[in-house]
Amino acid sequence: MSTERDVLDAAARAREASHGLALATRARKDRALLAMADGLVAAHDDLLAANAEDVARAEAGGTPPNIVDRLRLTAERLAGMAQGLRDVAALPDPVGEVVRGSTLANGLELRQVRVPFGVVGMIYEARPNVTADAAGICLKSGNAVLLRGSSSARSSNAAIVGVLREAAVSAGLEADVVQLVPGDSHDSVKALMRARGLVDVLIPRGGAGLIRSVVEESTVPVIETGVGNCHVYVDRAADLDKALAIVLNAKTHRTSVCNAAESLLVHADVADAFLPRVVTALQDAGVTIHGDTAFTAYDGVEAASEEDYATEYLSLDISAAVVPDLDGAIRHIRRYSSQHSDAIVTEDQSAARHFTAAVDSAAVLVNASTRFTDGGEFGFGAEIGISTQKLHARGPMGLPEMTSTKYVVTGDGHVRP
Amino acid sequence: MSTERDVLDAAARAREASHGLALATRARKDRALLAMADGLVAAHDDLLAANAEDVARAEAGGTPPNIVDRLRLTAERLAGMAQGLRDVAALPDPVGEVVRGSTLANGLELRQVRVPFGVVGMIYEARPNVTADAAGICLKSGNAVLLRGSSSARSSNAAIVGVLREAAVSAGLEADVVQLVPGDSHDSVKALMRARGLVDVLIPRGGAGLIRSVVEESTVPVIETGVGNCHVYVDRAADLDKALAIVLNAKTHRTSVCNAAESLLVHADVADAFLPRVVTALQDAGVTIHGDTAFTAYDGVEAASEEDYATEYLSLDISAAVVPDLDGAIRHIRRYSSQHSDAIVTEDQSAARHFTAAVDSAAVLVNASTRFTDGGEFGFGAEIGISTQKLHARGPMGLPEMTSTKYVVTGDGHVRP
Questions:
Q1: Do A356 and B219 touch (CB under 8 A)?
Q2: How far from chain centre, in Å, is Cα A304?
Q3: Rounded CA gap, A253 and A32, in Å?
Q4: Model pLDDT, residue B1
Q5: Which pLDDT score is estimated for B38?
Q6: CA distance A183 to A191
Q7: Which domains does chain A have, with CATH numbers?
Q8: Cα–Cα distance between A275 and B375 in angstroms, integer?
Q9: Nearest Cβ partner of A363 from B245, B373, B409?
């Protein structure tokens, strides 16, 4: 009860602070962002000390080392957070951009203008660097932000947010443009999801379970991010050298990320030529293959279950199948893909054209690794997440995706006849 | 149970049909739209007969005459439906439009392309003409549509959809690109709201109660439309002749629509000059004024409750208040507006600039009637509704707003270093 009240109070303060932030000039917002970066650098020792508390607590609680690693702040990571804020300051301000405009036949001037959402809620796991990244992107796009990080990072997040709020005030903005959501039980997440009218959009970042629960329970509009069951399809007309390089890169370049490949499909006509090479190369890279009968003919390949094809492993595992033709690949992808990133490797223009038209994913790639689906790689300069939904934003979301629009209509006493 | 099964089956068929429709050329879609228009004209007698059944049932059930009128099809309304479909055929195809594109530093070619949502669910009340309008807009934007009209219009809707499906098939599209949702109990609406994964977006059109219930209960993403508690603010620097014309037009041009004005705010400095004129003019037009104490000083003005300021009357009623200054007007609008359309009347450039920046509504109008917030008036050619939410689309929604996008990334064996 009291958690719910606290969260709604915080949301109401965010709403109030959002009015001023929406009207803030780019110059003021950039001053705040640079002050935030300087503040993080200046508070280096305090932040590492706060983080050490979180790390000690996690280690004492038996948290697995890879999760503890994500939680840990280092001098390098802190410098990266500060640089991230400076990078966002250097990006153009999306607010005020005229998306379209015209003068109507009756002389009315119509302009569609980018405006902030208002209040954004971020729900995320572990990594404390997301706290600064998200706050920076929200601030630049004119949105007050409510940050609900992992309870395991509570000391780090509190220290970071303290620095960010002080910097906002130093630039003449209200402290409440950046707030940590009070409470670290699930009740505070629940209250955030029910704060319709006070919070304009919720963005969950984290595992599939977190995202699913927010999508299903929230009455606040949600932007779904990041689950990636990504496919690489090797066509009959593939250059098999390119195919091999792309499969390896997509699977092994970094396994814990949403744009890593989780499933390999191979056209039957090139199976004999490609399977021996790709099985060996993947196994040499430490990958466990979960394959259909064409693949299990090779040593060390495990038999894939239906479940495997639907799984986002986020590990050195890949499901694999031979498909009879291009349409078979498309059918497989339609059935199992999470519609994040799916790639075809082919030298056949007609196959590429059909695949890119028929596969309905946030990113469809031709002769390129799925790892390229990323705001940084796309040149957006900053990324709040990768949307896998179709409403509002799809694919990597940069600053413009963190805004809404409004129509400004200017007349001179115009009435409808 | 059986309704739910039927609805999910229909949604699955729509999903299946959506794949082919997404790939259909503009030429084929336009052929279907023109065949639909011709089909409605040819089926004139059958459609009026089906409609007569609905009207007779409504009248026998004691439905109020204004609702029966909305339900009634006439030769003129049928011709309007056919013309609407021809108009949509003449509009450019949003699918395939390249929204942005560039070649990245590494040579990857990036294109963000408009694609259909997939399957759209429409939930709407009474008017059978919405059936043809919505089907036409969805088809042109490449979306299969599930139409859940009012049960009071079931004979009309079934007859119209029969014609539309036949026309789709004659143009080489699958019949299931247009379907009436089976069942006319609330169960079928419920099943539609839970068909996440089969239905990509739900658009409720109708009264505030319908929209609220869909927004709250649906796990399918919703585009909220149409509730309009719209304000006209008469500034101290207003040209009072323009102000009078705009207030009258916004309130009385058509009262049952979402862009009609429901609340009048007047700057204290012009209250003595403007109130006598506007009270008389509104009352002469048959409007009941629910005002604060400044207004109740005039004969026939009723005292406004808190409730009045929050009400979308959709009738010849208007709430009214005198505000101390521009910021007072903005505060009032922030508190009560449904963020649909809010207008300022002023000759003061600085006041107009501040109002348009500070009022966060789908449309903010300067010296123009709120009645202009309309897809037709904005030159969109077709409108599926007016979004009052901030995600995805805001304000009148035309064909581009009925699409998502995807990124197509083309390389030549690119892998991430």
A1: no
A2: 29
A3: 36
A4: 53
A5: 98
A6: 10
A7: 2-224+392-410 (3.40.605.10), 230-372 (3.40.309.10)
A8: 55
A9: B409
Residue holding tokens 């207008």?
B343
Mean per-residue pLDDT of chain A: 95
A257 touches chain B (CB under 8 A): no
Verify whether the Cβ–Cβ distance A372 to B416 is below 8 Å: yes
Min CA distance, A225 vs chain B (Å)?
14
| Amino acid at the residue B352 | A
Tell me the percentage of chain A whose pLDDT exceeds 90: 89
Rounded to 10°, the helix B26-42/B154-170 angle is: 130
Chain A closest-CA separation from residue B389 CA (Å): 9
* Inter-chain CB proximity A215 and B219 less than 8 Å: yes
pLDDT at A1: 53
Complex ipTM more than 0.90, yes or no: yes
Residues A213 and A211: their CA atoms lie apart, in Å, by 6
> A with B: how many residue pairs have Cβ under 8 Å apart?
211
Q: Which of B223, B408, B416 has the CB atom closest to A364's CB atom? A: B408
Both tokens of B371, joined, read 């009645």
Question: Under DSSP, is residue B368 helix (H, G, I), strand (E, B) or coil?
Answer: strand
Give me the residues of chain B with pLDDT under 50, please.
none
Q: Which chain A residues touch B391 with a CB distance below 8 Å?
A: 117, 201, 221, 223, 391-392, 404
> A253 to chain B: which residues are within 8 Å by CB?
415-416
- C-alpha to C-alpha distance for B173 and B159, rounded to whole angstroms: 19
On whether the CB atoms of residues A301 and A289 are closer than 8 A, the answer is: yes
Nearest CA in chain A to B369: A415
Q: What is the pLDDT of residues B117-136, one digit of tens each?
A: 999 999 998 689 999 999 99
Contact A149, A232 (CB under 8 A): no
Q: Does the distance separating the beta carbons of B362 and A23 come in below 8 Å?
A: no
Q: Is the dihedral of CA B192, B193, B195, B199 positive or negative?
A: positive
Residues of A in contact with B119 (CB under 8 A): none
Helix (H) or strand (E) run with residue A305 in it = none
Place of tokens 């007349």: A411
Chain A interface includes B363 (CB < 8 A): yes
Q: How near does any CA of chain A get to the CA of B117, in Å?
A: 6
Instruction: Supply the DSSP string of A175-207, one letter for each residue.
Output: GGGEEEPS--SHHHHHHHHT-BTTB-EEEEES-
